[in-house]
Amino acid sequence: MRKFKRIATYTFLSIAALVSIFPFLWMLVSMTNKSVDVTKGRLLPGTHLFENFKVLFESVDMLTALVNSTIIAVITTFLTLLIGSLAGYGFEIYRSPGKDRIFNILLLSMMIPFAAIMIPLYRLFGGISSSMPFLGIDTLAAAILPTIITAFFIFFFRQNTKMFAKDLVEAGRIDGLSELGIFFRIYLPTMKTTYAAAAIIAFMNSWNNYLWPLVVLQSPENQTIPLLISNLGAGYSPDYGVIMAAIVIATLPTAIVFFIMQKHFVEGMMGSVKG
Amino acid sequence: MSKVLKRASLPTASKKSIGRRFKNNYIGWLFILIAAAGISLFYFYPMIRALLLSFQSGMGSNLEYVGLDNYIRLFSDPTFIAALSNTFIYLLVQVPVMIILALFFSVLLNDATLKFKGFFRTAIFLPCVTSLVAYAVIFKYLFGVDGLINQFLLDLSIISEPLNWLSDPVLAKITIIVAITWRWTGYNMIFYLSALQNVDRSMYEAAKIDGASSFQQFFYITVPMLKPIILFTSIISTIGTLQLFDEVMNITNGGPGNATLSISMYIYNLSFEYSPDFGYAATVSYVIVILIVLLSLIQFKVAGDDK
Amino acid sequence: MKYFQYRKTWLLMLTVVTFLVLAACSSDDANSNADGGEEPDKITAWAWDPHFNIAALEIAKEAYSEDINLEIIENAQDDIVQKLNTGLSSGSMKGMPNIVLIEDQRAQSFLQSYPDAFYPIGEYFNTDDFANYKLAPTSLDGKQYGLPFDTGVTGLFFRTDYLQEAGYTMEDLTNITWQEYIEIGKDVKAKTGKDMISLDPNDLGLIRVMIQSAGSWYVEEDGETVNLVDNEPLRKAFENYKAMIEADFVKANSDWSQFIAAFNSGDVATVPSGNWIAPSIEAEESQAGKWAVAPIPRLNMDGAVNASNQGGSSFYVLDIPGKEKAAEFLADTFGSNSDFYQDLVLDVGALGTYSPAADGEAYQAENDYFSGQTVISDFSAWTEEIPSVNYGLHTYAIEDILAAEMQNYLKGKDLDKVLADAQAQAESQLK
């Protein structure tokens, strides 16, 4: 019976994994093919890999886009986690009716489609441009700033803090730690898996973010990966082999970040901390 | 475990001076200060501008105040009504399926004795990082008339002739639902996987000693323990579905006719595809806001989280 | 007492908040600095296809008689539409380009939505030198805003081998009606087993090609009045479309890549399309010598011609510092240089609508892929015949309504009712 369950689990997971990675495998195959073969849906690897990469790196500035996307994603991830977890912690640990009300109001900001606030936001940055050009339109800072403070992560950290043993806070106070000290020395290490999950999501959101960077970044030297891929597909006769090569390069960093972070999802890690 | 939580959520100030409580409350405000200021600036300020915009109409920058006209126009706009009902169909079918599937995966993949955990987790997560461009192209291949899905179903004799997945109104909706589920299940799984690490192992051990089956453990320990996270994922999935855009835009472009059009895609069309009417687009956006607020209130109530 | 051990951290947070508030306060002068009179040292241009319009700008930069510091920025067409709309409607011209390429069918909507944003350039070049059908969409209230770039002149690309197998020659396909095309299509399908055409059921591009050949559009001359229910060409186009679907020679596609694959893999016998599809056809080298181009079929009615348009775009200058420089650059190259147009044809295969260029040598060249046909010269001749229509404001909005009604029509709904319903819906939506 136990053995049967094992086999069933593995079979099920294998099928799910196959379905999940099929498009990814197809991309890997396609980047080795000529555009004509890609459009025909060829499923066998070809010999055009080097040619595709050559064309890709000659026709667009992939390197600049990679550097920009990395800068944006790393800074965004770090600040998002810091600000989001501080606030999520604050709302839950220092819970008060006033804060709950503020919290509910902040949640509202998740609910509007971004396209609806994009134009006023652009206007805002247009204004900032004149007094603080380093934060204004067409700077990486402008692409980062509105994305680091989101109700999403405040909500996420607050919900996770609900599962955090709050007597640890009290223990910290008795030990004479300051309130921020408790946050950094007790809460943060205890919630490592929560941070790992948040890091994955924040990195991915930032890496794939399209609409805001699109409107706020103008110069080619500020281009990010999703914008570059959008451009590759824009012509009347797009080269699908080259596009696939670009997409594979674009996908790998997030996949790697995930693979590294998921190792923190280890069963039973919490048990020892809680004692 | 629930005892621990209860104890923790009791007022912690029983033995402390009022001054200390006041100070903690004040420090608590400091914790949320940056977030509150940032969201006010980057979200609420634009949202208020958008609200004002929703009372205006006109092309591009030729806007004038029209009072509630835009809101009245909604009720007689067949495209909007089609988009609204499509979006609700997505919501009702897709969100529950995805949440359950994600929970199921995370429990399976949380097993310490499972081999190749890292691979399976990464594989199931991959869809949400796979570029939309690539996955749209391949989905259209898979669901094409002579695509793999049809061949597979034909081989198994489930269907007798190829189905028009993308040009039949009902099948196209199913395709979109499959696509969203495929893309976002792994994403939701992460939240559960990380939260499962915070569940006390000893509870499962105690349950095993009491002879509880895996199913009982799942329903009596896992689900109640993960409740805050299940609430979180169901709210963000609701928001995600009500703001659904990428899949519709890239796979069916709203068609055939308006059969797969989503509200967000309609907003996009009103703003950029048609002669831009940002006023009416803002009105439609606020309909989404109202719907999400109502649904979230219901979800908070059901989860009993609003004490 | 360590509560304030982290005082510095709190101070930092307060600084951040102050900073945000300051940013907010400084934001309201968004408009005031929109046109600072400073002349920029750099002219920027937005376009979308590196093998086509961007390449054309590069050549223009070389051909320009003066020195210009021109930065050409690549953005996908949909991206340009979003960026322009966001920038122009916010009132802040920061980050906007000097020159931008806009598709003709969208131009009126931009010109009318942002009346002060564009700079009239009619005085910089002679509009009479350009094909007449390009002028209506690129001008507003008698002022010329756009400098016409490429023609979207259509042709009927066909596989000579398939057609021959079915017993048809170039002559049989020249100057035919869509009804005749459908009959040929049935024959080709019966004799060769190949589909005649590949269509995306969500894209009514072919309907637009059909109605423009009869000088009609979704809206009347004024560009605003919805014209569907009493639109005879549209009615005929719908009938043709349905006849094609029912003739069972349509290979459905749902994506650009599948559309290209349909002819690259030899599955369809004809591709009625704008001339810009040629490079995609030529990409399949193994089919060299097997393709030819006939004039596009016409609608079966008086006044319809065997020439139409699909796509095509023009350059616009934004009313920001640098506008004179930008306009002079465009006028000197795209606006008046016949030799430059020969280079355009030779190097990027881009066919403009500048009439004097048609006499040039490059236009007479034979194309080996198309078995020595003088493709450019043919397209150029058809360009002159394209009926001029005012695309107006609502092409894509109406098309979405029509696409939904087309589904109903194909399912058997009465055509009168189909067009009447579409008309009613369009009228209520486009107030």
Automatic annotation (TrEMBL), chain A:
Protein name (database record): Lactose/L-arabinose transport system permease protein
Location in or out of the cell: Cell membrane
Claim: Hydrolase is one of the keywords in the record: no
Keyword tags: Cell membrane, Membrane, Transmembrane, Transmembrane helix, Transport
Family recorded in the similarity comment: Belongs to the binding-protein-dependent transport system permease family.
GO biological process: transmembrane transport
ABC transmembrane type-1 domain ranges (all copies): 66-261
Keyword Transmembrane helix among UniProt keywords: yes
Membrane topology per record: Multi-pass membrane protein
Species for this entry: Sediminibacillus albus
Automatic annotation (TrEMBL), chain B:
ABC transmembrane type-1 domain residues: 84-299
CDD domains per record: TM_PBP2 (cd06261)
Protein topology in the membrane: Multi-pass membrane protein
A GO term from the CC aspect: plasma membrane
Source superkingdom: Bacteria
Spans through the membrane: 26-45, 88-110, 122-143, 170-193, 218-239, 278-298
Xref: InterPro entries: ABC_transporter_permease, MetI-like, MetI-like_sf
Keywords, sorted A to Z: Cell membrane, Membrane, Transmembrane, Transmembrane helix, Transport
Alphabetical list of Gene3D superfamilies matching this protein: MetI-like (1.10.3720.10)
Primary site of residence: membrane
One GO-annotated biological process of the protein: transmembrane transport
Localization per Swiss-Prot or TrEMBL: Cell membrane
Stored Pfam families: BPD_transp_1
Homology family: Belongs to the binding-protein-dependent transport system permease family.
Protein known as: Lactose/L-arabinose transport system permease protein
Source species: Sediminibacillus albus
Automatic annotation (TrEMBL), chain C:
Signal peptide: 1-23
PROSITE patterns referenced in this protein's UniProt entry, alphabetically: PROKAR_LIPOPROTEIN (PS51257)
Pfam families: SBP_bac_8
InterPro entries associated with the record: Bact_solute-bd_prot1, SBP
Keyword Signal found: yes
Entry keywords, A to Z: Signal
Coiled coil residues, start to end: none
Spans through the membrane: none
tRNA processing is among the record's keywords: no
UniProt cross-references to PANTHER family, sorted A to Z: ARABINOSE-BINDING PROTEIN-RELATED (PTHR43649), SUGAR BINDING SECRETED PROTEIN (PTHR43649:SF32)
Record-given protein name: Lactose/L-arabinose transport system substrate-binding protein
Species of the source: Sediminibacillus albus
